[in-house]
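Quick log. Single chain, no ligands specified.
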Amino acid sequence: MLPVLETGAVVIGAGPVGLFQVFQLGLLEVPTHVIDALPHAGGQCMELYPDKPIYDIPGTPATTGQALAASLLQQIQPFGAQFHLGQLVSSIAKQADGRFLVQTDQGTQLLAPVVVIAAGVGAFQPRRLKLDGIEAFEGSQLHYHQPPKDVTGQHLLVMGGDEAALRCALALTETDAQSVTLLHRRDVLQAPTADIVEMQMLVQAGRMRFMVGQIASFEADAGRLQALQISDVDAALHRLPADAISVFQGLSPKLGPVADWGLAMERKQLQVDTARFETSEPGIFAVGDINTYPGKQKLIVCGFHEATLAAYAAAPLVFPGKKIPFQYTTTSPRLHQLLGVMKAADAA
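-> predicted structure:
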């Protein structure tokens, strides 16, 4: 069991709204830890449409999910929030002193007086291989949405047909792996043309292999994966040595344990008040697509508004008895100091 880490607030969800929540809490000097089921920050924007344009972010005529996530990460950098990525919150329990103990499926334990749920439509979880017994290799030889750690002299298989799968396979060709194979159920890839051309050149040069088909079965010996049987479009079987598999079959949002936390819900969304964006449990807030209230609009900009009000409601719980000043980032020397943008006028 990992030690309990005490902090001011725990933000569940590292999408755009969760990241902006960190920023607003940071302006109020609330130390924050962030948990997300994905292995990287950015949430739905980053995972589902990283390169598609977004036109409704204030003051930004056009951006992308990837660029927006990068900007938000840069914006919160001065506050030093700690991230726990690739982890799913398994429980939230109120303690005798009123704080909440948040635990994840990886053993992380966080203790805080404030929890903000910014989980969007739920925790994005990878679609897993539907092959009896293959789960025994998960975490060692079977990986989802990430490359294997040990590649030296290994036979590597990347499964999927999107940009992430192709770029993973291309990156693995630059390692000292013994072989790299990209497997997709169709011969059409949903990826940039430049990446597809690069793959075709590597295939022609014998540096990687592209197969069309699906995994029919696997071979194992002494508890280790040894090979796969690949069924092609004609149902013919091909034996493929495999020491590690990286699967990119997409993600599906699941509400997960949120539904078990005893919070008031309506149509799988958390009910909140619109003055504080607090749930039915004092000290637990909900912002972004995970919440509902009259007039709710599922827009990023609306989530930014909710995060701002939630931060001002949460700060007194973190600092009881302390007056929470209202300050403008334009003129406040203290905020300039926190943001690392001290001006000559501030110093004077």
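The chain has two domains: 4-125+252-347, 128-249.
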